[in-house]
Amino acid sequence: MFMCKDVVENIMEYIDNELDLQTLKELEKHTGDCPECMGFVNTYKRMLEITGKLKDKAFVTPEIRNRLRILLESKIKPV
Ligand SMILES: [Zn+2]
User: Fold this and answer.
1) Closest Cα partner for 48 from 14, 15, 8?
2) Can you give the C-alpha Rg of the chain in angstroms?
3) Rounded to the nearest whole angstrom, what is the distance from the C-alpha of residue 7 to the centroid of ligand 1?
């Protein structure tokens, strides 16, 4: 079962299209049912689009990734 924390764990690979098909399906199924995660993915994508650096992986430093994770985890109760 795909959980909110799994979306957070896989968001980078999802954006980069690096997920295997099974994980991709699970993630999209979850975001389809979970407004929180759908919002998270959309916000994440928009942020990258605004900066115009969607393809520049160096932009998403571990620090930014960490900050986003903390942001999302603060919204979602641990399961
Ligand atoms: Zn979720």
Assistant:
1) 15
2) 12
3) 7
Query: Residues of 45-78 as b/e, b for ≥16 C-beta within 10 angstroms?
Result: eeebeeeeeeeeeeebeeeeeeebeeebeeebee
**What is the C-alpha end-to-end distance of the chain, expressed in Å?**
12
Q: How far apart are CA 45 and CA 72, in angstroms?
A: 14
Surrounding residues of ion ligand 1, Cβ less than 5 A? 4, 34, 37
Question: What predicted TM-score, i.e. pTM, was given to this entire model?
Answer: 0.64
Structural domain of 24:
4-75
The half-sphere exposure of 49 on its side-chain side, counting CA atoms within 13 A, is 7
pLDDT tens digits, 44-59: 888 777 766 555 555 5
Q: How far is the CA of 6 from the centre of ligand 1 (A)?
A: 8
Structural domain count, the chain:
1
